[in-house]
């Protein structure tokens, strides 16, 4: 009998034989090794050793390293709650904080797979499913509400670029600049880049008491 596939080229005939705990231990081993040694240096042997599993067990589940790494990355997928603060700016700051925390936590992992993504469609697809698609859905809901509140125009061409621009600006900072994604950076990103692009304009805070006195 030919093995079934799951639509991403991964063999699925024996997947149900692994318990969720065993599968999790394999994924954790993959993610740890990616951070420690990078994608190119990761091997099925090293995963088997780290997870205290046989290499045969891993090959029965996944056809090779690309499928295994892609599955491990997909296991990180989170379903983010769509914030509803009552304003576009408040919603953007809330989702920026969530994305910033994910980027900060996984900066080393993103750096480890960054080069391989460009040459491995399966890995790139996993990253899109794990990171980009959930955030596209969140941004879609936020921007739709902003249109309903008449905060932004529905035909603003920037709407389609905001999710990707937002994510890239946050994820790239720890990797490219070696700096943390702090609250000031997130606020500046929303106020100086995202809101003006959407036609809202810069948010201006009220001067503090010392400024008023001077």
Helix content range of the residues, please?
A: 55-70%
- Note the overall shape: elongated
Order of helices and strands: HHHHHHHHHH
Mean pLDDT: 80
Beta-strand proportion: under 5%
- Biggest sheet features: none
The termini sit apart by 82 Å
Written overview of the protein:
This protein is mostly helical. It has two domains: 15-74, Arc Repressor Mutant, subunit A; 88-197, Tetracycline Repressor, domain 2, CATH 1.10.357. The chain is 64% helix and 0% strand. The protein is built from ten helices and no strands. The protein has helices at residues 20-37, 44-51, 55-61, 65-74, 88-105, 107-117, 121-148, 162-177, 183-197, 209-213. It is elongated, with a radius of gyration of 21 Å. The N and C termini lie far apart (82 Å). Residues 1-16 and 202-214 have low confidence and may be disordered.
List keywords for this structure.
mainly alpha, Arc Repressor Mutant, subunit A, 10 helices, disordered N terminus, disordered C terminus
In short, what is this structure?
The protein is mainly α.
């Amino acid at each position: 009998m030919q093995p079934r596939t799951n639509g991403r080229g991964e063999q699925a005939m024996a997947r149900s034989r692994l318990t969720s705990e065993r599968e999790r231990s394999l994924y954790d081993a993959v993610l740890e090794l990616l951070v420690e040694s990078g994608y190119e240096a990761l091997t099925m042997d090293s995963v088997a050793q780290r997870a205290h599993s046989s290499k045969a067990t891993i090959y029965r589940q996944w056809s090779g390293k690309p499928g295994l790494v892609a599955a491990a990355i997909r296991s990180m997928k989170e379903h983010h709650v769509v914030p509803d603060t009552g304003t576009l700016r408040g919603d953007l700051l809330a989702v920026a904080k969530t994305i910033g925390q994910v980027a900060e936590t996984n900066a080393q992992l993103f750096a480890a797979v960054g080069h391989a993504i460009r040459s491995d469609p399966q890995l790139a697809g996993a990253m899109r499913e794990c990171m980009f698609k959930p955030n596209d859905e969140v941004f879609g809901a936020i921007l739709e509400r902003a249109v309903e509140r008449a905060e932004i125009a529905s035909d603003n061409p920037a709407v389609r670029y905001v999710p990707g621009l937002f994510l890239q600006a946050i994820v790239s900072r720890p990797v490219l600049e070696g700096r943390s994604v702090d609250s000031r950076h997130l606020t500046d990103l929303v106020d100086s880049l995202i809101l003006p692009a959407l036609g809202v304009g810069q948010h201006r805070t009220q001067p503090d008491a010392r400024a008023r006195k001077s």
